[in-house]
Write a structure and sequence with these properties.
Blueprint (H helix, E strand, L loop, with lengths): L2 H22 L10 H12 L19 H12 L4 H28 L7 H11 L2 H7 L5 H17 L4 H17 L4 H12 L12 H25 L5 H6 L3 H20 L3 H8 L9 H19 L15 H4 L3 H10 L9 H16 L3 H15 L19 H15 L5 E4 L3 H7 L2 E4 L6 H4 L5 H4 L11 H6 L4 E3 L20 H7 L2 H6 E9 L2 E8 L2
Parallel strand pairs: 1-2, 1-3
Antiparallel strand pairs: 3-5, 4-5
Helix pairs in contact: 1-4, 1-18, 2-3, 2-20, 4-5, 4-6, 4-7, 5-16, 5-17, 7-8, 8-10, 9-10, 9-14, 12-14, 16-17, 19-20
Length: 538
């Protein structure tokens, strides 16, 4: 590794580490609620219960990445704090994601561009997207998947065609698919690309190299798939069933999700980025470049068909953003070399102005405002956190995640380990309470996950949060039911319409059985903040 690459990697690590340190000095935590689902699964496995959500219940594949879960299990077995590890690991993975993007761009264009500055400017644009900063410390598999995806494709286009290299490429794609199930589409695309004969779109030649590629893939993913199908009993992960089944509404939601994700990646910063892309010409297109760009398109189409996701900053699209920007480096160079009447500056000055302009447009994004808030807290020597958002309060800081952690801590104090609570969301509440949790939207519940959606609930399509069954939940007779998913300044018995958007919550609230069998049980958690529970009558 030469000096330039070392400096770039160090700068990327410092960038993500410093900004997330500042964010953590403003927020209670940067970890998202679903990350605690991984952590609870890892804890249950290390304690000898297997891949279960609730102890002594049947195994259910309620997580979105097996390989990431395995890493957390290994870390937990070493008695390392998983919350801290998830943040540090995500920061490192995000830095390497951008670094591998640099390696891909450098490999494609090292002999085609006059200067490497165009590649560096391109990865700067990638790095300053608020999405990378947001997901770098979110505690989920997004950063790891992004990094491993780019590493896999970098090795795929760079390694020679020897037998060992081809077999290794297959192994890498196998691991990628263990990391995220939908990456199987990328493997099929890579197999087609490497087996295409005579430059024909339809003619495929399955030779020894293709067989080695398939064998390498099958050794890893085939073994894993057979095990997980026999262990859990379903062809797809439970999360897939919980988040799909919406037909045309699902596809429409997925399309809107992709549009929103792209908008959140840069906002008005897309204007100067599009300006740079206007300088593209056909001479810049290469076979490998077109192939990698096609991977990005496949990922976007997949996101559309599965209905998108409920998280901000497009975690399904973000991993392939460097591939969608695959032609940005030559476009940057072309922009810097062409004579512009109204921008008669040195080439490096033009690119620098573009970067600064984009950065100024992005600094208003919440993740950067959190970092600025953390910096101001350092100067003031204090850190103020509002525990949760209440519709009646006027504070500017909204930290729902801290509220869910407080809810989980409170349940640990008042409930027994074998008690059940029906709730949404379930991550922090499940992890910190240590009691049994019934997921009202089906992410870790196969009964709800496999139910069909009716037309009425399809109209309010929310990926992963549309399914539900109030009668099923009541039939399980949980001791506690949580209908309001945030702390309030005063007891709130009637759920707000924001809570009633969930099918299970709406059906439970409208049930006569619920009102006869449960009583309102508000608890003052901290400094006048209330946790609004319902408790089953004795």
């Amino acid at each position: 590794m030469n000096k330039t690459k070392i400096v770039i990697l160090i700068c990327l690590l410092a960038y993500f580490a410093i900004l997330n340190f500042l964010r953590l000095n403003y927020l209670h935590t940067t970890i998202l609620d679903d990350a605690y689902i991984f952590i609870r699964y890892a804890e249950n496995f290390v304690n000898g219960y297997g891949f279960v959500w609730n102890i002594l219940e049947q195994p259910v594949e309620g997580y979105t990445s097996f390989l990431y879960l395995v890493i957390l299990i290994l870390v937990k077995s070493l008695s390392i704090d998983l919350e801290s590890f998830a943040i540090i690991f995500g920061i490192i993975a995000s830095a390497f994601t951008i670094f591998f993007g640099y390696l891909i761009y450098d490999f494609l264009y090292s002999n085609r561009l006059s200067k490497t500055s165009s590649v560096i400017f391109s990865i700067i644009i990638l790095a300053i997207s608020p999405a990378y900063l947001y997901w770098s410390a979110a505690g989920m598999e997004t950063s790891f998947y992004s990094m491993f995806l780019l590493l896999t494709f970098y090795l795929f286009i760079k390694l020679p065609g020897t037998s060992k290299s081809i077999l290794f490429k297959g192994v890498m794609f196998g691991l990628l698919c263990v990391l995220r199930f939908e990456a199987v589409l990328f493997f099929l695309n890579a197999l087609f690309y490497s087996s295409e004969a005579d430059k024909s779109f339809l003619r495929i030649k399955i030779d020894r190299s293709a067989m080695l590629f398939i064998i390498g893939f099958a050794i890893i993913f085939g073994t894993y798939f057979i095990w997980r199908w026999s262990y859990f009993g379903y062809f797809f992960p439970n999360t897939f069933y919980a988040k799909t089944g919406g037909g045309s509404h699902q596809i429409t939601g997925g399309f809107l999700y992709v549009i929103k994700a792209m908008r959140l990646f840069y906002g008005f910063g897309w204007i100067p980025i599009i300006f740079v892309f206007l300088f593209l010409n056909k001479k810049m297109f290469t076979k490998n470049g077109i192939y990698l760009f096609s991977i990005g398109i496949i990922s976007i189409l997949t996101s559309v068909f599965i209905g998108g996701d409920h998280f901000h900053y497009g975690r399904f699209v973000l991993p392939v953003l460097p591939l969608l920007f695959i032609f940005l480096p030559p476009a940057f160079e072309q922009m810097s070399l062409i004579h512009l009447k109204y921008l008669n500056l040195k080439p490096s000055y033009r690119s620098t102005i573009i970067i600064i302009f984009i950065a100024l447009l992005l600094v208003v994004k919440p993740v950067y405002q959190e970092a600025i808030g953390g910096f101001l807290n350092l100067l003031d020597g204090k850190k103020e956190i509002i525990e949760a958002y209440d519709l009646t309060c006027e504070e500017d800081i909204i930290d729902w995640q801290h509220g869910w952690i407080l809810m989980g801590d409170e349940l640990k104090q008042i409930a027994n380990r074998d008690d059940y609570i029906a709730a949404v969301p379930i991550g922090a509440i499940g992890y910190f309470s240590k009691i049994n949790v019934i997921d009202m939207v089906g992410i870790v519940d196969p009964v709800i996950a496999h139910e069909k959606l009716d037309e009425e609930h399809l109209k309010k399509w929310t990926p992963g949060h549309t399914k539900g069954d109030g009668n099923y939940i009541l039939s399980r007779k949980p001791k506690y039911i949580q209908l309001t998913d945030y702390l309030t300044r005063k007891p709130r018995e009637i759920p707000h319409k924001r809570s009633l958007q969930f099918t299970s919550v709406e059906q439970i609230w409208e049930s006569k059985e619920f009102h006869s069998d449960y009583e309102f049980y508000p608890i003052e958690v901290i400094d006048g903040w209330y946790y609004n529970l319902f408790r089953r009558k004795e």
